[in-house]
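[09:14] KT: can someone run the structure on this one? pasting the chain below
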Amino acid sequence: MGRKPLDIEKVVFELIMNDDIANKRRLAKRISDIAYKKGIYPSSIHELYMARGREEFGGFTVPAINLRSMSYDLARAIFRVAKNNNSGAFIFEIAKSEMGYTAQPPIEYSAVILAAAIKENWQGPVFIQADHTQVNAKKYRENPEKELEGLQELIADAISAGFYNIDIDSSTIVDLSQPDIKKQQKDNYEVCAKLTQFIRRIEPRGITVSVGGEIGEVGQQNSTPEDLRAFMTGYRERLRKGLIGISKISVQTGTSHGGVVLPDGSIAQVKLDFNTLKTLSDIARKEYGLAGAVQHGASTLPPEAFHKFTECNCAEVHLATEFQNMIYDSKYFPLELKNRIYAWLKVNAISEKKEGETEEQFLYKARKKALGPFKKEITSLPQEVRAAIAAEIEKKFDFLFKQLSNINNRDLIEKNILLKRVIVRKRKASGKEVVHDGEGAD
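[09:31] RB: done, structure tokens below
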């Protein structure tokens, strides 16, 4: 008798429910080994973006999707949408902050995504990204070296887990009190250059990690061409000669993460400046050879806005909060569980409630913080419940792929992305440095 086929969902469930990091690594390796055998490769989108910077193609925007909860179920939905639309250009991402409050460390997140690819019979590259690898401005002012060491450790951990796309967010230390624009951007471009150099030092052999920079903090004042040029001039001066730099640049054009919450808990209409987005994206591509501009905080925009990203030559758009909202607000999400989550927030997150906020505003903004503490309960929901919620959100994914014209581009992926299997050869006990070898596609 032959061996019983592996139940990948059983492995994923064990991975998510297990709190021991050593066991998570063991289970993640098991998943990644199966993925490679099936032709599924964690990959960098760098070469595709460089081809776009050379204006070899255009006409679509890459969705970068943050999965804060039900990650396995929603990743499966995304792979189904990609297969149905013949799309290969899409990114799974999670921010530094999200890793904490959703209790999804890099090793777990990447393995869950790969398991979803296995389950949906995907083949080819899978782009996994560390979104908002963000400098804490207060901690940086107190001890710059310590703050950067912490970010380097996170980056090393992410790369060792198959995150071959890293977005550096040092826009938090832009100093708008300086009269000169280049001086305003100085700390930003210097830190971005330092972290780029660190990434180039530890990235797997044969793989160029896609690195993104950011010139304007989301939710603050809109970025300008002068900001972009000052950042890029300083960044290129500071980056060690001969090293490959960033492939894209995040800008601020009027959005905010999660949207602006009104007193009744609804979201205010966003006034996104698409003209600024187009101008900055064109400058990034034509003057600096980047893929273009990246838009954050876009998932709560009205549906009729999304086709404009492609019209503006926006390279990448980040989408997160709306999918979290759809989970919580689904008619299939158990009301009893939602009530317990809200009761938990009123005790454990009450310090985040600001003066003058209504309860609806507070709960809307704070409920993401319950996704980690309740991760195991949400994961343990009956399969038919999770499938029904995922089916609702799958329709949204399909709508977004089509609105972003992110269809029929698998051939571009095959042309520009070389599949590499990465083997981790050595890991320092500190986790700060990892040595990899990359092999050609099997």
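[09:33] KT: thanks! The chain has one domain: 20-334+381-416.
[09:34] RB: yep, looked fine to me
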